[in-house]
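Request: Show me your protein:
***
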Amino acid sequence: MWYIRTIPPDLISDCCVNFDTMVLNCFEFLLGSGLSEQSLIQAQLGTKLGGLGLRASKTHSAAAYIASFFKSKPLVETFRAKPIVDLVWSGFSQLLIS
């Protein structure tokens, strides 16, 4: 899931949907049977909620990207020698609104 932490979600939305579909198709293939929509949704839940933990990358991409950005921000600022929040915060606010 490296890509959801490093690429803005609006740029990889379609790829996330395709990836999530491939993961669920592979799961169905391993089971040897198709599953209902409700069963597929349950499979994507965390294990504490009765699911299998097959998390949807599209659902988590915005949070993963923002968390990665703020985790790496101090390191990037040491290279740039100035704050970077002002440069990209407008992009984050767009993610939070949508």
Summary: The radius of gyration is 17 Å.
